[in-house]
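Changelog entry: the 6,7-dimethyl-8-ribityllumazine synthase record was regenerated in this release. Current contents:
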Amino acid sequence: MMATYEGRYTDAQALRIAVVVARFNDLVTGKLLSGCLDCLARHGVDTSSNSDQLDVAWVPGAFELPIVTQTLALSGQYEVVITLGAVIRGDTPHFDVVVAEASKGIASVSRETGVPVIFGVLTTDTMQQALERAGIKSNLGWSYGLQALEMGSLMGVLRSATSAS
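Regenerated structure tokens:
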């Protein structure tokens, strides 16, 4: 018989979540973080300053996201890690280098640790595009929060299913 595995948004109280936020372009990343925290709070995650369920780490920029994400994932304290950043194209190839290394690094953390890592790094051509995605039109931070809840729950379901068989 075929098994179907899905994560739910209602298992939030059982999750420990880390959010790693790039400070560079903090006008954008701060809005992403606000949207993310709003989503998590509305789904039952304690987002208060004395929360035992959520930690937020700030890094200088998107390039530094992978190393801190890896450290948190390897700690064994979190079911899911969310990364938030904003890389905006400029006049030099720097954009391409930062985006490539951040995305490869973040993806490898998830594969190597088995901890879901949500890729919440905006890559846009202009500040206007980034702001539109961080709250002017919609806030993708909310979506990243939902993805974290779903993946954290799904991994719990999968671990239970595979340990029972």
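Residues 26-154 form a domain with the Rossmann fold fold (CATH 3.40.50.960).
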